[in-house]
Design a protein that fits this description.
seven-stranded parallel sheet; Hexapep_transf_CS; alpha/beta; single chain; 26% strand; Trimer_LpxA-like_sf; 3 helices; UDP N-Acetylglucosamine Acyltransferase, domain 1
């Protein structure tokens, strides 16, 4: 026999759910970090319109972290400079993040020595960038107790770093590079390349002489023409595929 619905309890539950969601949204807005509202964090520099989402990940060594403008740092992103908190790392920045950088949720950028991320780089969630790796030279000493190796990391501007990618110490990634999801990158990656695998290898590259090799399998997306309104885009999205294809074949007047 079905249970009688308790309308009052259901109403209270919905109201409580809305209150919880509204309260958490307020906490997220209030807890986010910006140049105007840095909270307890004192970054070496943080540009206008940059925001670190709440809840934050681990953040320390912030006086040696310099962030550009219009950056988006997702929830639970770890940003560290130095091996541990409260070290004096000298006069120069250790972690440099350019303008317009997006760091996806749960990513880690561990800068025990210099890490540079160029402008307009986009990271998917759970990317791991580190300038430090464990050493295992002494076979008799636990690996975690051996002094680590450190090498600077540089990621050029305009890169796309896929979900779960790992950027290892000494990596030098060029301009406008695509790093596939789950790739493990070490060494030098040239400009305008696509790398994939563990360890990552170049699987496609663009040069002025030959274009993309191997050739791209899909056509380049067509940008939205200037002057198109949001209402027109909504109307277009509601058309069936056959009508859209017929309109695309029409010759422009004139």
């Amino acid at each position: 026999m079905p249970k009688r619905k308790n309308t009052f309890s259901s109403w209270r539950g919905r109201l409580l759910q809305r209150a919880v969601h509204a309260g958490w949204a307020w906490v997220q807005r209030t807890g986010s970090v910006t140049a105007e509202r840095p909270g307890r964090l004192r970054f070496g520099s943080i540009g206008p319109a940059t925001r670190l989402a709440f809840p934050l990940g681990t953040v320390f060594g912030e006086p040696w972290i310099h962030m550009g403008s219009h950056c988006i740092v997702g929830e639970q992103v770890t940003l560290t400079a130095g091996l541990m908190p409260d070290l004096d790392l000298g006069p120069d920045p250790i972690l440099r993040i350019g303008d317009g950088v997006v760091l996806g949720r749960g990513s880690h950028v561990i800068a025990d020595t210099t890490v540079t991320i160029g402008s307009d780089c986009y990271f998917g969630p759970y990317v791991y960038v580190t300038s430090t790796n464990h050493s295992y030279d002494d076979p008799h000493e636990p690996i975690g107790k051996q002094w680590p190796r450190m090498e600077p990391v540089r990621i050029g501007p305009g890169c796309w770093i896929g979900t779960g990618a790992v950027i290892l110490p000494g990596a030098r990634i060029g301009r406008n590079v695509v790093v596939a999801a789950g790739a493990v990158v070490r060494g030098t990656v040239p400009d305008h390349a696509v790398v994939a695998g563990a360890p990552a290898k170049v699987v496609r590259r663009w040069t002025p002489a030959e274009g993309w090799q191997p050739p791209l399998r899909t056509p380049a997306p067509v940008p939205i023409p200037d002057g198109v309104t949001s209402d027109q885009l909504v109307a277009l999205s509601e058309l069936d595929e056959e009508t859209v294809e017929r309109l695309a074949r029409l010759e422009p007047e004139g």
